[in-house]
Amino acid sequence: MVILSVTDLQKMYGRITAVAGISFQVEQGEIFGFLGPNGAGKTTTINMLTGLARPSAGQIWIDGLDGVEEIKKAQSIMGIVPDESNLWDDLDGFENLCFCGALYGLDRARRQERARELLEQFGLASLGSRPFRAYSKGLKRRLTIAAALIHHPRILFLDEPTTGIDVESARQIRRLILDLKRSGTTVFLTTHYIEEAERLCDRVAFLVEGRIKKAGTVRELMAQAGDGQIIKVALADAADALEPELQRAFPRLQVEIKGSTCTLHASGQIALLPILEFFEVRGLHVLEARAVRPSLEDVFVQITGVAAGELRRGEGGCGR
Amino acid sequence: MRAWIAFWNIFKKDVQTYYLKPPNISWGIIFPFSWTLMQLVRTPAADDTDLRSLLPGLVAMSILFGTTSMVAVTITFEKRSRSFDRLLTAPISLTTLVLAKMAGAVFFGALMACLPLLVGAFIVDLSGLNWAVAALGIWLMSISSAFLGLAIAVSAKEVFEAQTYANFFRFPMLFLSGFFLPIHSLPWLLRLLSYCLPLTYGADLLRWALVQAGDFHPGLDLAALAGFSTLLFSYSRWSITRKWIL
């Protein structure tokens, strides 16, 4: 059953196109990932879906409700976690959760019971009386997610949930997302961490410059790279400066050199000998060359033409 | 019921996190207390009528500064920290949200208005005061001032910016709303301007309550205050939709 349906959604800011006519559907109970570099239009899309931005054109349907005209009704089944933790600094954890419950019309007994339950579930029970401002970044993130779940939403929008937080908190958040899926909650996740999308999502859409370049299940997308080949070459020394020259010498390949590791992508088979010769002629010893199984990152690079480095540029912390 | 739960909790949260903070309480008490005492002490004690005629202006000033300053803080600060986005994405109408946010400021403004009256009660004979008209004037003035503060706050990005914009309105109002200078003594152009200010009618209504005299009919004062409140509320609501729901 489709819970979210988007058709030709567009957002213009003056002459600038932030989202250029995207269409997709999200099934009840799945984790749908929106993957793209910073500025791709992920947050703008989430803002339109949650009522914080008005679409310039297109249609949004959320559980049978018009996502523009009936947004207030639709918001009652949504949980929203923005890219910044935005609870109230002066309220403590418990008060923040109770207040968010009140915004969704829960009576006092129900919201207090649910707040206690969520603090327990998110491992924050001992910190419930501490003001939000005293929480670490990771704890703030967890409480913000808990606040979005106070009213048992049917669909949860998560905008970059693990960006800029510590490894342990990021791991806990990923576990929580999988638990939510198991309990039947639909999750709409935006991220620029490819591994996160690969690990969590049932289906992924690649968003670049406001357009969906490709969408499908992780398996379907991986199959796209089936005919292609990826070779990783380990060199004795760093060779970043050789990247443009190597690219010119082998225009059919996609070349990326980082330090002493060179990665070559091709849609067909790669002839290894000329590449080895290329390095040997320039006095670089090749220590190892091996074909690797393509990852979702490789598929992303292959389909969108966006370098993996570009996607990682916005990574603010160690949330991987 | 659902809207009422949200309304009440937004109001309660604002009172708890902003209005009942020690700096706001002390500022809210010291400021009106000082200027009330200053004005009452410098006026000859024998001239009771003169003292009574000062009180409407002092009450109006306390409401104007109290409400506009607090709205600038609560709205601009929450917008900057993005917690206001959380309110905008909650399943409550924008009208309920705006009214809930303003309720705290109106309440604060009404409390501030009591201070000059309280101080005045020790110096001036308030036995002839029409409490019903005074209460009505205080509430309506608090409402229109709160909405004026909101209209200003929606245009600002930072708290200091909102306070600066507010001063553009507040200080001219001190001289143009008939608090200390009678409107009929103003040049005609300034008089025209004073008719466009909500507090002119608020102070006039309070004069009716205190000294049973005023420049306009009390009915006109009430209608003008209600009209300004509706206008400023509609403008703020429209402005939030246009500027914050992009």
What does this protein look like?
- The complex is a heterodimer of chains A (320) and B (246).
- Chain A has 320 residues and is of the alpha/beta class.
- Chain A folds into two domains: 2-223, P-loop containing nucleotide triphosphate hydrolases (Rossmann fold), CATH 3.40.50.300; 227-293, Alpha-Beta Plaits, CATH 3.30.70.
- Chain A has twelve helices and 14 strands.
- In chain A, the strands form three sheets. In chain A, strands 6-7-8-3-9-10 form a six-stranded mixed beta sheet, sandwiched between helices. In chain A, strands 2-1-4-5 form a four-stranded antiparallel beta sheet. A four-stranded antiparallel beta sheet of chain A has the order 12-13-11-14, with helices on one face.
- In chain A, helix 3 (93-103) crosses helix 4 and helix 5 (137-148) packs parallel to helix 6 (167-182).
- The longest helix of chain A is centred in the middle third of the chain and has 16 residues, at 167-182.
- The two termini of chain A are 32 Å apart.
- Chain B is mostly helical.
- Chain B has one domain (2-244).
- In chain B, helix 2 (22-42) runs antiparallel to helix 3 (48-80) and helix 6 (131-154) packs across helix 7 (159-176).
- Chain B starts with a helix and ends with a helix.
- The model of chain B has no long low-confidence stretch (mean pLDDT 86).
- The interface between A and B is medium-sized, with 29 and 25 residues.
